[in-house]
Amino acid sequence: MKCQGDFYLYGRFWVILLLLWILLLLWLSSLLWLLLPLLLLLSLLLLLLLLLLLLLFLLLVLLLLLLLMLLLLLFLLLVLLLLLLIPPLSLLRLLLLF
User: Fold this and answer.
1) What is the distance, to the nearest Å, from the Cα of residue 17 to the centroid of all Cα atoms in its chain?
2) Which residue did the predictor score with more confidence, 21 or 65?
3) CA-CA distance, 86 to 68, in Å (whole number)?
């Protein structure tokens, strides 16, 4: 009979421990549900930051392309100005050299 009583107390101990474990898991899951909007907000902010960095990078590339185009235009205008300043006969001689 003593063994049955010990088994009963031992079994009750494990049931109480299992219930405490389930309560701990429920409490942790409720904490996770409380943290979920914060994690979602943090991920959205991170995504917004990445999009902003991508936009800045694209803007930088566009500015560099614009600068390159302006330099090319300046070079072409300089060549046109030199061609206008050279007399036509010397221009013809230059073309005949090539």
Assistant:
1) 46
2) 65
3) 27
Cα(16)–Cα(58) distance, integer angstroms: 61
Summarize pLDDT for 7-50 with one digit per residue, the tens. 556 667 778 888 898 888 888 777 777 777 888 898 999 999 99
> How would DSSP label each residue in the chain?
-HHHHHHHHHHHHHHHHHHHHHHHHHHHHHHHHHHHHHHHHHHHHHHHHHHHHHHHHHHHHHHHHHHHHHHHHHHHHHHHHHHHHS-HHHHHHHHHH-
Domain coordinates of the chain in residue numbers?
2-97
